[in-house]
Structure formats: C-alpha cells, structure tokens
Amino acid sequence: MHRRILVPSVLTASLLLAIPASAADASPGAPGIGDPYYPAGGNGGYDVSHYDLRLRYQPRTDLLEGTATLLATTRQNLSRFNLDFGLDVGDVRVNGRKASFARTGDHELEITPAAPLEKNKPVSVVVTYAGKPSELKIGGWTAWHRTPDGGVAAQEPDSAVWWFPSNDHPLDKATYDVSVSVPDGTQAISNGVLQSQSSRLGWTRFNWRSNKPQASYLATLAVGRFDITTDRTAKGLPVLNAYSVDLGDNAGAARASVERTAEVAEWLEGLFGPYPFNALGGYVPNVTSGFALETQTRPFYSPRQFANGANVSVVVHELAHQWYGDSVSVKGWKDIWVNEGFARYSQWLWSQKEGEGTAQELADYVYALHPADDPFWTVKPGDPGPDKQFDIAVYDRGALALQALRNEIGDEDFFAILKGWPAAHANGNAAVGDFVRYAEKVSGKPLAGLFDTWLYEPSKPAGGVGAAGAAGATGAAGERTVRADAAPAQPKSWKKIAATNAIHDHGNGSESESGHEH
C-alpha cells in the first residue's frame, strides 16, 4: 500500500484548482457593448440566445406586469453584469438563485449574482417587473405609444427598454417567445407566428414565437382592438395583418397597401433570395406618429403613412428591411446605410417594375434635386453620425451609391450581389466595409474609390451617376445618365416615394412619437 503525502506547496495548488476560475478573476461586464454612437447601448460580458417574456397588460391603466427569462452564455468571468431596462424591478434570479440588483444611469440594471459566473457557461436570468411604459422618459423621450385602446412598442434605435430587460444592441440577436395576457375583446400582436391563444376569467393570452435571431429593437408589442386578416402564401408562409378598428379615413388606404404584403415579399424574393423568416405581415395601430419601422416579420406602420391614399412603396421599404437590416443587421449603428440605402433602392426598383420611373431616372432626379451647396451632400451615409443617422441623405444618397455601383459593374454582378449578400450574412451582422469587400469579390473590380465618393466624401460627386461618374455616360444597365447641369423630369413615382421620407423620422414630433434612449 502506498500512501501519498501532500507537502504544503502541493496542497495549496490543489486547493486553488478546486476554486472556480470565476471566483479568482471575475470582473464586471461592461455597461455598454462598445458602439461609439450610443456608448450606453447594450452590455458586455454575455450573449443572449433566447428571451421568454410572460406579460400582462391593462390598457385602461397602461400597467404592464412581466416576467422575463433570458437564456445567455457568459463571455468572461462575471462578478456583475448589466441589462438595459427602465421599469421598476421586483426580483432578479440568476441560475435560480436570488441576485442583488441596483440602478445606475437612466436605463442600466446592474445585477450581482449570488456567486460569480464562469466564462463560456450557460446562464438563466429571471426578472420580474411592473410599471407604466408611457410614464418612463429617458432623455425626455418615450418609445411607448399610447393608443385609445392600448399601447404599442415600436421605435429605433431602441424600444426594448420600455417593456422588457435586454442586451439592447443589434450585435446580440436572439429568438423570442412573447406571451401576453390582455382583457377579453383586446388583442396582443407581436413578432413571428401566433402559437396559441386561450381565455380565462376575463383575460385572453396570446403566445407568439419568433424563431430566428432578432435584434432587440425589432421586437414589437401592440395591444388594442384590431381587425385581423390571415392567409398563407403559395409556399405556406403564414400572413397576419392587423389594423386598429378606429383608423378612420386612413383605414381603406392602409388596408389597400398592407394587404399587398405577400405580393411585395414574393417580388423581393426575386431580388434578394428566399424570405428569411417564419411569418409575414404588418400592423397599423391608431398612433399619432408618422414613421414606419421594420419590426421583424411584422412591420409597424403609422396611419399617417396613408393620409394621401394607398402607398405600397412604404410596404416595399419595410419588407426590404427583412433581408437588409433584420436578417443582416448592422455591426454598429454607423453602418445604417447597409439597412437604409438598400431599402430605399428597393423602392426605386419597385417604381421601375410599376412603370413609374426607372432606378436611373430616379437617381438622375435626386442628383439634380440637390445643388452642390445643399447640406444634403455633407452627410456621409457610410458614417453619418448619431445626429444624422436617419437623415434623408442616408436614404437617397445611399441609394445613389447603389445606382453608381450598378452602372460600374453591370446588372449581372449587381443583382448577384443583391441576392448573395443576405445569404452570406443571414441571421448575422455586417458593416459597410464588409459589403464593399463582398462587392469587390463578386465583381472582381476595385470599388473602394467609388464607395468613398458616394458614401464618405462630404461633397457632391462630379458628373452625375454614370458608369464611371462622367456626365452624359451610359450605365452598364443600359440606362442613360444625364448631364450634371440638366433638369430631368420628375418621375411619376417620386411623390409616393417622397411621402415615405418620414418613415424613420423618429426625432420629430411629440414625446409620444420619439424614443432616442441613449
């Protein structure tokens, strides 16, 4: 029999090995994810894979009660971590054990688990909370829209803070189950597919599931009284559209536009490839705002978008985002052109399909519309800054960049890029630079100079949107460009497209219309 005797140094080493690494070198997760536009946005130290939200909402009082369960993975040894949230918190549990919590700033919930968390381990976080979202103001704004019969969460770059705790940045996408109990006779609309609904004791519960990665700002909730239409596409995809029952004179135009959702999505599949999600639809609540938003699988539309009649162009814009912005999301908010330039260009392509002006005619018109001294040309779509993130130049100059690219490389490569890019980055994140490199790879041409001219130079590019930027050139698409000093005719579609210029005008209007959290 051999007995091993541990000398003190060996004993000390063995005891250290018994202590989890997290207890030895754990540190707090960062209170921001590192986005220079919004330093407080998101958090560091973990990645969320799934949100399970179990909610109860009383429209009469605007009281929202909730239990949020977050499934995540730690990315460092964590002594503490943050969630982005603004309502009152009653209890927090981490891995089933009661955790302490505190508030810092205007939307940071600091959570200290009972024991430090080890790196690369699964973790569950359960937060119970309650509050009135419309009374929560952050930076003077609220992203929660009160309606005559309920409330709506829809805003960019953030809305989650008003109704559930999250890692609130597009870099941390997750799947969602949203279960909402509301008084009988009231509906709750969210993302994805309605899995089931049931009624008990005067309340009806709606259970929604969004099964593909989704950014927190793209999660939506609408409670109220809606007229709902349902259908399936030829491929079997469920379609659900919802309209507040009290839209008044805008009701007909809203329906005439949004009911074409499946048709528009089918057309966009020809440009961008297979539709990336498990459901289609849209909703029009009775809000006073003027913008629209690409909330995943079910875009939000303000009734004012249809004040002048039906406008399918706004539906084209928001559905294009399902590929460009939702499936492929920004790495940082400075990359907003990867969302908005492509959604606007989709409107130009729809105009061409409808015989109301080609993409080239629209490009020529936009180019001529803004003289060289127009501040429009000082905005850099490739990095516009947080104050200009949703400036019209990000949309229109951003679309001009795509027409310039099309003319430079020709239709075959251009449309191969439009379809290949969402497939290459499906369910992920990408930056402007990633797109430039992808376009160079597909076309075999150096394109950094072209993108620098159209996305980054704070001045009007000389010579129009020609094949090589020369006035009077003929693009590779076979569409003639005009001279820089010409006055092209206004395309027939222009007024419809211009009517959607406020679709992301999140900063104008009353507090009920705006939500700049950070």
Automatic annotation (TrEMBL):
Keyword terms: Hydrolase, Metal-binding, Metalloprotease, Protease, Signal, Zinc
Signal sequence range: 1-23
Domain named Peptidase M1 membrane alanine aminopeptidase: residues: 310-454
EC main group: hydrolase
Compositionally skewed regions (Basic and acidic residues) per UniProt: 503-518
Cofactor: Zn(2+)
Short name of one Pfam family: Peptidase_M1
EC number(s) on file: 3.4.11.2
InterPro entries tied to this protein: Aminopeptidase_N-like_N, Aminopeptidase_N-like_N_sf, Peptidase_M1, Peptidase_M1_aminopeptidases, Peptidase_M1_dom, Peptidase_M4/M1_CTD_sf
Residue span of region Disordered: 465-518
Catalyzed reactions per annotation: Release of an N-terminal amino acid, Xaa-|-Yaa- from a peptide, amide or arylamide. Xaa is preferably Ala, but may be most amino acids including Pro (slow action). When a terminal hydrophobic residue is followed by a prolyl residue, the two may be released as an intact Xaa-Pro dipeptide
Residue span, Aminopeptidase N-like N-terminal domain: 49-218
PANTHER family from the UniProt entry: AMINOPEPTIDASE N, PROTEASE M1 ZINC METALLOPROTEASE
Similarity annotation: Belongs to the peptidase M1 family.
Name this polypeptide is given: Aminopeptidase N
Lineage: Bacteria, Bacillati, Actinomycetota, Actinomycetes, Kitasatosporales
